Sequence to fold (220 residues):
Amino acid sequence: MALVFRAVVQLVGISLSLLGWVLSCLTNYLPQWKNFNLDLNEMENWTMGLWQACVFQEEVGMQCKDFESFLGLPAELRISRVLMFLSNGLGLLGLLVSGFGLDCLRIGETQRDVKKRLLILGGILFWTAGVTALVPVSWVAHVTVQEFWDERIPEIVPRWEFGEALFIGWFAGFSLLLGGCLLNWAACGTQAPLASGHYAVAETQPHHLHLEMKTTHLKL
Fold:
């Protein structure tokens, strides 16, 4: 029963981590990090992401334009690009490493210590990927709040508000953190199952011991 529970925890952890990694990749390229509507034209909606700015109009549809200069971007967007790329790379590496450490994978079944280390390393990579995904999302959200309540900006100037990508990024970061925690708990908090050969040895040892004791008793 404990082995089944351990395998279930591993599968839940790797599934959450996979979901978080996919959502973090999606967050990186979505242009909906910030948005605002013009009071004069409610049919026009502006959005901004890490790579491009878009405007949506009912008659024309969505039109996007990539940012031409990296150095011309605000500091939070420049660093967010680097951190999101780092999060995506660490998440992919965590999937590869932890995948080989799962109990359901028959590769390296006799090398339990190696599989345990791979699972722990994968969990740490997911933790790091989760943090590097939460930092840029939270930083952009913090700057957006500051600019929204900045009294120096005239009231007639439109204010940026939270976009859908920020909420997806928060969910992705926490999924990566939770998935990493489950994988590390499964590796450190529960005992790994023995290989099939060890099961056979463990089962035959009591039987041989019983036969030896019975033979000794008959001789006496």
